[in-house]
Amino acid sequence: MKQKYTSERNFIDNKSVDKRALSWLVTKKLNGKISFLHIASVVNILFEELFLVLFKDKIVSIGNFGSFILKYLSARRHYNLGSKQIEISKGGKRIIRFKLDKKVRQKLMDNINFTKTFEKLENE
Question: Looking at domain 58-124, which of 3.40.50.720, 4.10.520.10, 3.10.450.50, 3.30.365.10 is its CATH number?
Fold first, then answer.
């Protein structure tokens, strides 16, 4: 069963944000002036283009917001509990990192109430 984002609380409590949640939030911010399906298709196109450019150039910068960076993970040594031997993992795995702009990061850090944040985490 798919989760419905019927309230802001559901959106905030969700640990990760997907395209559907982002589309829902934009629709809510626009007070429903533009339909959810139209916003969802625009978000889909935005992410498709972002990934195409990212895989071609390995970095996408959005001014005054941040940068998406494509990194390649090299092979690593790990201990296999099943065979009880040290093995080498497959290399070449790609991951996407996001680096927030310094100004935006500083503004966020200035406005975060750490006491409230850690109280919520301790209560979970």
Answer: 4.10.520.10
